[in-house]
Amino acid sequence: MKRPSDKSDDDKPIDSGGSYSHQYDRPKKKQSSPPKPTHSEDDSAIEGKDFYVEDEPKPKRKTKPTRVARPVGKRKKVSQPVSDDFGDRYFWHIVGIVLLVVGSFAVYMIVVKSGEATIRQEAEEKFGPLIAEYCKPPVSVFPQGPRPAVKGKLMIVDIQEQKIDIVYGRCEEYLRAKTPEEVGTIVQLKWEERVVGSYSDGSAAKQWICTLQCIDNATKIGHTPKEFIGSPPPKSIRGGGGASGGKPYKQINEYLESVVGKQK
Q1: For residue 4, what are the β-bridge partners?
Q2: Rounded CA gap, 137 and 52, in Å?
């Protein structure tokens, strides 16, 4: 039996109006909202920037790949096997170059020789029977002493062949007489092959000797003869028949240029 003083919680008044309500009918407490973030003094400095939830990873910036420094030094060349095709092409390139050089030289010699032959042929047509007169020996020879000056232009003849010598076509143009009236000095050449040795098969090794004499065309008095020796014969030959060296054309041309130059 309850005492008058013992009152349960259900009998306690809830409000001042004296009304009662069940404990489950009591008003629920309002859930407190999270406190608003307080703004610090540096908030103005971060305005306009993006913020991300901590759980979400921030996007990574694209960076250029870093270069790995290579050691300074010469790179080692890796030798590669040379194919047979490359060797064939290299060989034919060399053959082509050699043929080109040889062909060019042959064409040059043909042109030079044809030019010399043309000069001598034109001169023989102009001088005609006078060539035999130019091949006659001098009436006398200048006494020993200083060499007399060479007069006028030159007519160069081979006294053995009785014709204009090849030297006429090879000498400088200002030395050549182009008409009989221009001939001031006759140059007589006498060619001889002198035996200077023999080869193992018994054939002769010969060397060219040229005897040159200048003759004044007006007085027919000759200068002292001068001898020019060609190049020596080759050391060895293939086959028989012997061989001889080259003719001293260059020496003769240089001599004629020197004696004609003295009269200027």
Answers
A1: none
A2: 125
CA distance 154 to 217: 10
Nearest to 185 by CA among 142, 162, 152: 152
Torsion angle of alpha carbons 240, 241, 242, 247, nearest 10°?
-140
Closest-CA residue to 51 (of 43, 34, 36):
43
The structural domains of the chain, with segments of one domain joined by +, span 130-261
For the CA atoms of 261, 262, 263, 264, the dihedral, rounded to the nearest 10 degrees, stands at 60
pTM score over 0.90: no
Do 205 and 243 meet the contact criterion of CB atoms below 8 Å apart?
Answer: yes
pLDDT, tens digit (0-9, with 9 covering 90-100), for 41-97: 545 444 444 444 445 555 666 666 666 666 555 565 555 555 556 566 666 778 777
Q: For the purposes of burial, counting CB atoms within 10 Å of the CB of 179, is it exposed (0-12), middle (13-18) or buried (19 or more)?
A: exposed
Q: Are the CB atoms for 243 and 233 separated by under 8 Å?
A: yes
Residues, the chain: 264
CB 134 within 8 A of CB 94: no
